[in-house]
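Q: I'm writing a short explainer about Alcohol dehydrogenase for a general audience and would like to include a description of its predicted shape. Could you first generate the structure from this sequence?
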Amino acid sequence: HIKEGKITYVEDIAEGLESAPAALIGLFVGHNVGKQVVVVARE
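A: Of course. Here's the predicted structure. Afterward I'll give you a sentence or two in plain language.
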């Protein structure tokens, strides 16, 4: 269903390990939209 575009998802991406604490707090207070992801390093 995802490939057909019937189901979509939203990612809230935080860049860098230093932003992880704020991203975690955002989960508890409801600031994020969709799945919370913290990108530590891009290869």
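A: For your explainer, you could say: Residues 1-43 form one domain.
Q: Perfect, that's easy to follow.
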